[in-house]
Design goal:
Blueprint: E1 6-10, H1 15-26, E2 30-35, H2 38-48, E3 51-54, H3 60-70, E4 76-79, H4 95-122, E5 126-131, H5 144-163, E6 169-176, E7 179-180, H6 184-188, H7 193-200, E8 207-208, H8 209-220, E9 230-233, E10 238-240, E11 243-244
Parallel strand pairs: 1-2, 1-4, 2-3, 4-5, 5-6, 6-9, 7-8
Antiparallel strand pairs: 10-11
Helix pairs in contact: 1-8, 3-4, 4-5
The structure holds 2-hydroxyethylsulfonic acid (8X3).
Amino acid sequence: MSHPRTAVVTGASSGIGAATARRLAAEGFHVFCAARRRDRIEALAAEIGGTPVECDVTSAESVAGLAAAVGERLDVLVNDAGGAFGSGPVAEADTEDWRRMYEVNVIGLMQVTRALLPALLASGAGAILNVGSTAGRTAYEGGAGYTAAKHGTKVVTETLRLELWDQPVRVMEIAPGMVKTDEFALVRFEGDRERADAVYAGVAEPLTAEDIADAIGWMVTRPPHVNIDELVIKPRAQAAQHKVHRQG
Ligand code: 8X3
């Protein structure tokens, strides 16, 4: 009997991570849904026939638990856990927010990748998909803590691809622009609903988590010799980071 294909999705409790877990399950993967909020990943895993794994990617101990749950073989790793905390200019930067952003977007991604790499290689055709951002391609006012961290996500991805060039594993990045999810902007603006809503104000169709999950599903299901190095994906209304078509 052949093994079912397996995938790990971090940040699976909401947004792009949850949508990606659903999408990969629909593609036939057994999905390990990893995140901190147990109630959410338990509900998601029950819905899609996956396995919930409570995991804080910034904790080495927690990540070791994820690797133990996954076992010896893994086909796909989607490093989605990440986020933006705060929106102040550099002159007023909150050091703790910056540390947290580097911890989750860069160090967390590294810890999970390091722990699961042996299992990905053991599959004979592994895939690592890192969720970056257009914030890893540009700079904008009030965004430096996040843009610096997401540039980190991009560079770690590129480095991994170089280092693993003779190994049976693909290394890819998706870099979304404006995606409207329940929590991203709300977390960034520390629960300020008005400021969070203003991000998407008048934009007829920002991307959804499902749009990104659709692209991720496509990327990881290409044949093993096809490496989509990076895929930048924005809504039609966002011609550039600052140039967004708004109505009304
Ligand atoms: C989120 C995209 O535009 O807020 O990763 O930097 S943006």
